[in-house]
């Protein structure tokens, strides 16, 4: 029974022990470092309350004077919440984990999820089949069902990328549908990828789904590295602003929406499901009429309830961790295989004993493909090299170097040592210098 419902059940007002019990289960201390602690209100989802606010609640519910309410609040034992929130779908608002209390950031859907519904989810299924095709729609439905049926299991390390060159195909409507079906706090939506590299990025992933409406991802970029890392992990070391360094849970699966086909999908990728999202219309119907009828079904004819009941009861038969290779994904992987990058990677494999290179080492490859000077650094980064802006003395000359990812250097007396994958050697011994051109 919810706290406010319990209060109503007790009658018009609460007295003595009942009121103290009610207050102790509704309010929790979040900060007791100052003389006056701050409280969180579980009922109103409000943080930063002062003791005087609690006195006001006691006066209202207990029909008592200010002095009596203040005296009563002083005798209530308030528990303390940990500063970090947990995301635990289907569990109580406050999670007791080995004696430590955490606020559960999950919020249940607004409709009744306990009562089985007899509504059909056919309009939703048909809509997805129109937009994606039958096989792709079924894979998406399987993943959504698995995620809803096993909300606290470790997430499948996969991500979705949906695109179409023009808008108005219902991608945003689909995200809004998920929020209404799964619960508003179960789907975090951000407009662009910029926030993924912020100090509080880990908090965005503390949900079931993270959706980006206008995804702009470049292969080899910091954003791409972040997406790969967070998609393939369940926890991350994060330094959230003003909250300190520590392990953060990142249970969210990623869903990217875009107006462009992806250009960052690597060959043999096993992480991304890529599909064009394009709704086909019959000759006798218009787009506006179609979406008006579909939205009416969602909002006024029990569509959200029907979708929830379908997903919670749908039997998942395929291994959702084996991401199907769609035609769109094959095209994306072919586009990402730049022949220059491939040759640079081959060069690095042929010279495995070297960890550092001057840029002239790659002149022959660049000249062969007529790569201009502005493009060269981007291609080296895409091949897995990192530019070291320091100047090093090698064979009586000074060079700026491109190094394999993970290499770092350290001065030892008059010499410089290089460290890579647990090994170390003198920089001179692991650096390849070319004087071509």
UniProtKB/TrEMBL annotation:
InterPro entries: Helicase_SF3_DNA-vir (IPR014015), NrS-1_pol-like_helicase (IPR045455), P-loop_NTPase (IPR027417)
GO molecular function, one term: ATP binding
Pfam family, one: DUF5906
SUPFAM superfamilies: P-loop containing nucleoside triphosphate hydrolases
Domain SF3 helicase intervals: 135-290
Gene3D superfamilies, alphabetized: P-loop containing nucleotide triphosphate hydrolases
This protein's UniProt keywords: ATP-binding, Nucleotide-binding
Protein name stated in the entry: DUF5906 domain-containing protein
């Amino acid at each position: 029974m919810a706290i406010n419902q319990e209060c109503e059940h007790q009658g018009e007002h609460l007295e003595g022990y009942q009121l103290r019990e009610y207050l102790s289960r509704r309010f929790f201390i979040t900060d007791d470092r100052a003389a006056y602690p701050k409280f969180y209100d579980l009922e109103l989802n409000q943080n930063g309350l002062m003791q005087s606010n609690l006195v006001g609640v006691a006066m209202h519910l207990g029909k008592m004077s200010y002095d009596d309410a203040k005296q009563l609040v002083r005798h209530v034992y308030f528990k303390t919440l940990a500063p970090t929130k947990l995301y635990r779908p289907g569990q109580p608002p406050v999670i007791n984990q080995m004696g430590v209390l955490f606020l559960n950031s999950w919020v249940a859907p607004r409709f009744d999820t306990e009562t089985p519904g007899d509504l059909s989810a056919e309009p939703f299924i048909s809509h997805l089949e129109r937009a994606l095709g039958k096989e792709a729609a079924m894979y998406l439905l399987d993943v959504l069902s698995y995620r809803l049926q096993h909300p606290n299991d470790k997430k499948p390390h996969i991500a979705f990328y949906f695109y179409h060159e023009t808008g108005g195909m219902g991608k945003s409507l689909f995200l809004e549908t998920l929020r209404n079906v799964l619960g508003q706090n179960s789907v975090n939506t951000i407009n662009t990828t910029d926030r993924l590299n912020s100090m509080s990025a880990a908090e965005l992933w503390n949900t079931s789904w993270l959706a980006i409406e206008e995804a702009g991802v470049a292969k080899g970029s910091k954003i791409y590295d972040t997406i790969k890392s967070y998609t393939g992990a369940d926890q991350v070391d994060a330094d959230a602003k003003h909250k300190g360094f520590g392990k953060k849970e990142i249970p969210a699966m990623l869903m990217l929406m875009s107006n462009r086909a992806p250009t960052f999908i690597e060959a043999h990728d096993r992480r991304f499901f890529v599909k064009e999202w394009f709704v086909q219309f019959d000759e006798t119907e218009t787009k506006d009429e179609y979406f008006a009828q579909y939205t009416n079904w969602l909002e006024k004819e029990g569509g959200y309830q029907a979708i929830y009941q379908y997903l919670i009861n749908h039997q998942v038969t395929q291994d959702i961790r084996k991401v199907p290779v769609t035609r769109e994904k094959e095209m994306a992987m072919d586009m990402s295989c730049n022949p220059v990058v491939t040759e640079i990677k081959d060069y690095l494999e042929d010279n495995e004993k070297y960890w550092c290179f001057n840029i002239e080492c790659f002149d022959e490859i660049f000249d062969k493909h007529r790569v201009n000077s502005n493009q060269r650094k981007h291609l080296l980064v895409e091949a897995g090299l990192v530019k070291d802006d320091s100047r090093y003395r090698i064979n009586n000359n000074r060079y700026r170097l491109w190094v394999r990812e993970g290499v770092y250097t350290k001065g030892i007396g008059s010499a410089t040592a290089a460290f890579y994958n647990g090994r170390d050697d003198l920089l001179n011994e692991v650096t390849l210098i070319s004087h071509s051109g």
